[in-house]
Amino acid sequence: MTMNGAESLVRTMVAGGVDVCFTNPGTSEMHFVAALDRVEGMRCVLCLFEGVTSGAADGYARMMDRPASTLLHLGPGLGNALANLHNLKKAKSPVLNIVGEHATYHRQYDAPLTSDIEGIARPVSHWVKTSMSATDVARDGAEAIASAMTPPGQVATLILPADTAWNDGAGIAPLPRVAVRTPVAAENVRRSAEALRGGNATLLLGGVSLRERGQLVAARIAAKTGCRILAETSNARIQRGRGRLAIERVPYPVDQALATLKDTRAIVLCGSKNPTAFFAYPGKPSLFAPEGCRIERLADYHEDLVGALEALAEELGAPKSVAIPEAAKPPMPTGALNPDSIAAALAHLIPENAICVDEAVTTGRGFFKSTHGAAPHDWLALTGGAIGEGLCLSTGAAVACPDRQVIGLQADGSAMYTVQALWTQAREKLRVLTLIWSNRAYAILRHELTNVGATNPGRKALDMLSLGDPDLDWVGIARGMGVPGSRATTIEELAKAVRAGLATPGPYLVEVVL
Amino acid sequence: MTMNGAESLVRTMVAGGVDVCFTNPGTSEMHFVAALDRVEGMRCVLCLFEGVTSGAADGYARMMDRPASTLLHLGPGLGNALANLHNLKKAKSPVLNIVGEHATYHRQYDAPLTSDIEGIARPVSHWVKTSMSATDVARDGAEAIASAMTPPGQVATLILPADTAWNDGAGIAPLPRVAVRTPVAAENVRRSAEALRGGNATLLLGGVSLRERGQLVAARIAAKTGCRILAETSNARIQRGRGRLAIERVPYPVDQALATLKDTRAIVLCGSKNPTAFFAYPGKPSLFAPEGCRIERLADYHEDLVGALEALAEELGAPKSVAIPEAAKPPMPTGALNPDSIAAALAHLIPENAICVDEAVTTGRGFFKSTHGAAPHDWLALTGGAIGEGLCLSTGAAVACPDRQVIGLQADGSAMYTVQALWTQAREKLRVLTLIWSNRAYAILRHELTNVGATNPGRKALDMLSLGDPDLDWVGIARGMGVPGSRATTIEELAKAVRAGLATPGPYLVEVVL
Questions:
Q1: pLDDT tens string A39-77
Q2: CA B507/CA B428 separation, integer angstroms
Q3: Any chain A CB within 8 A of the CB of B287?
Q4: Share of chain B above pLDDT 90, in %
Q5: Chain A: residue nearest B83 by CA?
Q6: Domains, chain A, ranges and CATH?
Q7: Of the candidates A377, A497, A492, which has an alpha carbon nearest to the alpha carbon of residue A435?
Q8: B92 contact partners, CB below 8 Å, separation of at least 6
Q9: Which residue of chain A comes nearest to B92, CA vs CA?
Q10: pLDDT in tens, B483-505
Q11: To which H or E segment does residue B424 belong?
Q12: Is residue A285 exposed (0-12), middle (13-18) or buried (19+ Cβ within 10 Å)?
């Protein structure tokens, strides 16, 4: 049976384990869309803006450790997906982007949608290819999947000219050999052990070493050497809560980060990098390690992080197992809403096995510390600093894990960038409860204005950092996209709204008025 | 007096005539924001998503024929602006993008927001530069303005590392010599005249030749030669309505376009190009001109289009002036809403001197034909095919022309991409009346699915083209962002809602349920 290029690609994707597609198609992708009807096993999730597709693919990959795909409309569609592809790339999540393009023979005429798609793709992709013929499409797709799955996870962008989709294809292509995480060199282990034995050391975890398995080995290493365990400032996924290790992160504010690391004499990196300031500030350092601090790279992102930790535990003669201490849980607060009371309340409100998506920005600085003792959950944070991913991460995580509750901890300014994700949550009836911290400001920028030395700002500057005038009505916006919700102005109302949200079979949004 | 790099740039911009900035700033842009307080004459308009900034800059430039600026936060902020920069580039609008970047010495540490900004900028920019020192910033900015103003209008992207903003700058820089539109070669005029004299010819207008002045000359040429005057399919700005020439556009559907041009023996291009299909379709041609049709380029985009038309009229011995015939106006319809009745109603509802922004897509195919006899107005269409610009174009046009009424003719699917523009319209109290054609579908794609040969689509394909389940509540979404509105289900309700909108001092939205 003959199949066209588009169908050969869809079948190759399903066979290669890429069976979810976050789509925002246009004319040049119509054959791909048509092929979906003929192929079993591909779940398509429509998004009303392309930034939602890439953010959702990131959330999906973080929970599944395998790529979803996006379906995008030429250069501008890819452009709209770019910011969350940036975040996804920094999370080291795998993804397969399918970008429609003009028919090969049509490009020369410079039609309105003609653009340099490869040029737009390259800054956010590890692998970029334009299929040149319908008979290449399946093989190119298989190569793209293998590239995406290359540890620790890559961005593969396959550009699909319309005629390569509609002409006769060459059938399903087998997946090439996919790279696996490589073991670390014995020398890394030896030097890391030496660094930890010197005392006052920090083991800095990142990537998959922050899952439960890695934490248990890290706890053994800490028990033996007395080292401190820290996570990077922004992490793709940490398993945490009751029964897990209470791991703190390198703080975002420069002064706090410097204070945290000031007595550290050695830092061992495991899927992490030399701790770095998010931004530079006049007169402050870019790197947080104190002068003379020894930096040892135990394992690079793409290497076998948990295996490296096990080898290190072995080298150090660490105990075979250690008890994980019970984390304290603050009492349930009452009354006024503020970042501290909310943080304490979250320790009680996060349900068992939830997936928390943290784009809380300023409001959420203290959330982590207060929730070490909450019910076990996963914590997904913004890794690339491009705000506007939270609602999308939640969407993708909920598609990946339909049996788990997603809790979005969401700043208001950030939520606006990809607010269209709410509609997809409603259409797919996803179990996403979004808590909007409605402070009606780019609050982080008010601090940053001071941080960069711009004290005493005037009306014009402050107007650029305010989301008031008019206030956003989040309950109204969400309802307009099919997501029910309510407003909370006290801790008691927040708790009640969370209960209502958890009892709702689909998505729910709470505007938490600060 | 010493000023820092940021202030030297803002002052250079104001001195160079760039005095509107559509902003979505972040930390790396805080010195630029702080400088706004110290500099008179720069109007800053906050947008809650970067796609709004570039789309608004396009609307502004189309009405003012000079650049606005955007203020964007590193690579992802530029990425979010990219789709509408693509549209703006295809409109040949000028713009100056200011993109914040990490401090020069901080880039090496690969902080989360580090990306290849120049790489992202290049596919949508004519000019890209990263300032290397605070003392370069003003001069680089002046060069960028001159580049943006180079005819017919260019995209200039200046990347501003944070330390070049906060260190001491070198004062205001003078604007370099700005290029002007060049006269066309006499040979072009001679050959174009020859082509028109041959009969059955089409004069295809684009760019600024579609303003009133160009039309008057084109009408004289048509009176002499009997040629047909057509506009390109998508145009940045046409002055039209009562007293102007009733110019039809090359149709979007391939079969209609081929039929329109089938008897044409010569096409003379004036700020336009050889008519090309928007997309390729199996078995259909990419170019619309019939075989053997002579194609003559009278004037290229950057040349003096009106001067070229005048030279051509002279060469042909055309009459010095001709009367512009009165265009017919369909009677005001009643009852049911459909694309035809809406089109006829618009002929009566468009107010004097309005700016119509057309992103009506399928619903709007017939709007143009019915509104030749409406009150005089400007018509701004989507030039790059990247849907999601309409609300932004309206925003920018209203900032440019506060004394004129903007009417957005807006498809629902397209409106969702940059829905955040509504908030900016509310904050700035802009006179924008948006009519949302709520057909709850990517209706164009239903046609396109058939056009590419994918007939008889199944449930999965059709779901990807439907915006229902859940329906978007546009009045609710708009109200959530501070824009009042109402719903219309008949022509009478539409007329009443338009009157209400025109009587509202700020923005207003009408959900027109189809």
A1: 999 999 999 999 999 999 999 999 999 999 999 999 999
A2: 9
A3: yes
A4: 89
A5: A76
A6: 5-166 (3.40.50.970), 186-316 (3.40.50.1220), 339-513 (3.40.50.970)
A7: A497
A8: B152, B153, B207, B236, B301
A9: A112
A10: 999 999 999 999 999 999 999 99
A11: helix B421-427
A12: middle
Pair of tokens at residue A309: 């930790």
Closest residue by Cα to residue A433 from A354, A509, A512: A509
Answer yes or no: do B279 and A112 touch at CB < 8 A: no
**Can you tell me the distance from the alpha carbon of A507 to that of A347, in angstroms, rounded to the nearest whole number?**
21
Give A508→chain B minimum CA distance, Å. 14
Selected for mutation to probe chain A from B279, B392, B504 (highest A CB count within 10 Å) is B279
Query: Does the structure show a pLDDT above 90 at B362?
Result: no
Number of residues that this document lists for chain B: 514
Chain A residue numbers touching B80 (CB-CB < 8 A): 51, 80, 82-83, 388, 417
Residue A442, pLDDT score:
83
Instruction: Confirm if B364 and B358 have CB atoms less than 8 A apart.
Output: yes
Nearest to B277 among A111, A166, A286 (CB): A111
Distance CA A28, CA B397 (A): 31
Q: Residue A381's CB: how many other CB atoms inside 10 A?
A: 26
pTM score > 0.90 for this model? yes
> Alpha helices, DSSP H only, in A237-327?
254-261, 305-316
Give yes or no for a contact between B391 and B434, defined as CB atoms under 8 angstroms apart. Answer: yes
Asked whether this complex has an ipTM greater than 0.90, the answer is yes
* Rounded mean pLDDT, A422-445: 94
Q: What is the pLDDT of residue A1?
A: 59
CA A121, B235, B464: angle at the middle one, nearest 5? 50
With b for 16 or more beta-carbon neighbours within 10 A and e for fewer, the B278-295 pattern comes to bbbbeeebbbbbeeebee
**B46's tokens:** 């906050």
Q: Tokens 């490296």 map to which residue?
A: A308
Residue A94 and residue A154 in contact, taking contact as beta carbons nearer than 8 Å: yes
